[in-house]
């Protein structure tokens, strides 16, 4: 069974440019998470989807970040415009449902460098 | 103070040594996760536990709910165990959100 797929794996852009990340969760997983992980720190949740609905986006910087999961499967996370401080690893994870009995499965992440 | 504290932050061991990584948390939890992150960013879930002890191969995870403490043990460590080990908790009061520790960088030398 394929795991969580993310692309690209690495992205280098100049500040003020837009960037987008793509995530394909494990088949059948209704819950999808986007995390940001700064160097030397643990991941921090940006947004959580239940199917196509964003049910927790309180940590998403909405002035420059946006996300969508139109058909409740794949998801994209966009930053426009990117700032130097956005350099981080962006992780996508999925789980069968959002409860404490379901593990989250993580993708390989996208390492973003903003110059 | 972070809700999830790990120790040590960095750990260097010789191949074959027994390794312990500790995690303390300050909130009531419904589950605790131990995760492994290799260079390149990908995270693998090692254990999810809410009580007692779990074992998988050379890895053992324990949790003491009363003391709000968990440990991850690696027996007969190997250089391929070198990675960042992250503790994450699901708080009873924060819904489904995971709160992560900052991770422990483990290096096992041959």
Describe the structure.
The complex is a heterodimer of chains A (115) and B (110). Chain A is 0% helix and 48% strand. Chain A is mainly beta and 115 residues long. In chain A, the strands form two sheets. In chain A, strands 2, 4, 5, 6, 9, 10 and 11 form a seven-stranded mixed β-sheet that branches. Chain A has a four-stranded antiparallel β-sheet with strand order 1-3-8-7, with no helix packed on it. In chain A, a hairpin with a 2-residue loop joins strand 5 (44-50) and strand 6. Chain A is globular, with a radius of gyration of 13 Å. Chain B is mainly beta and 110 residues long. In chain B, strands 2, 4, 5, 9, 10 and 11 form a six-stranded mixed β-sheet that branches. In chain B, a hairpin with a 4-residue loop joins strand 7 and strand 8 (69-74). Chain B starts with a strand and ends with a strand. Chains A and B meet through strand 5, strand 9 and strand 10 of A and strand 4, strand 5 and strand 9 of B.
Q: Name the structural class of chain B.
A: mainly beta
Average pLDDT of chain B, rounded to a whole number, is 92
The gyration radius over C-alpha positions of chain A equals: 13 Å
The largest sheet of chain A is: 7 strands, mixed
User: What would you call the shape of chain B?
Assistant: globular
Which of globular, elongated, flat, extended, rod-shaped describes the shape of chain A? globular
Number of helices of chain B: 0
Hey, roughly how much beta strand do the residues of chain A contain? Answer: over 45%
Assembly classification: heterodimer
Fraction of residues in helix of chain A = under 10%
Q: Ranges of chain A with pLDDT <50 over ≥5 residues?
A: none
Radius of gyration of chain B: 13 Å
Q: Which class best fits the helix and strand makeup of chain A?
A: mainly beta
Number of strands of chain A: 11
* Beta-strand content estimate of chain B: over 45%
What is the terminal-to-terminal distance of chain A?
37 Å
Low-confidence stretches of chain B: none
SSE string of chain B, helix = H, strand = E?
EEEEEEEEEEE
Q: Termini distance of chain B? A: 36 Å
């Amino acid at each position: 069974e394929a795991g969580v797929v993310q692309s690209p794996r690495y992205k280098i852009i100049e500040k003020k440019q837009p960037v987008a990340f793509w995530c394909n969760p494990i088949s059948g997983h209704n819950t999808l998470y986007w995390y940001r992980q700064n160097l030397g720190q643990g991941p921090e949740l940006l947004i959580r989807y239940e199917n196509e609905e964003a049910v927790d986006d309180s940590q998403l910087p909405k002035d420059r970040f946006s996300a969508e999961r139109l058909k409740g499967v794949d998801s994209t996370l966009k930053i426009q415009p990117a700032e130097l401080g956005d350099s981080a690893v962006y992780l996508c994870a999925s789980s069968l449902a959002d409860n404490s009995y379901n593990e989250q499965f993580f993708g390989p992440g996208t390492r973003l460098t903003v110059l | 103070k972070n809700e999830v504290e790990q120790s040590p932050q960095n750990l260097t061991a010789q191949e074959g040594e027994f390794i312990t990584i500790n995690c303390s948390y300050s909130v009531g939890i419904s589950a605790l996760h131990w995760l492994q992150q290799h260079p390149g960013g990908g995270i693998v879930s090692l254990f999810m536990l809410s009580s007692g002890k779990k074992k998988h191969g050379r890895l053992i995870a324990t949790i003491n709910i009363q003391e709000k403490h968990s440990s991850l043990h690696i027996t007969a460590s190997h250089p391929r165990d070198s990675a960042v080990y992250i503790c994450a908790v699901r708080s009873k009061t924060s819904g489904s959100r995971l709160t992560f520790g900052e991770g422990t960088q483990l290096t096992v030398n041959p």
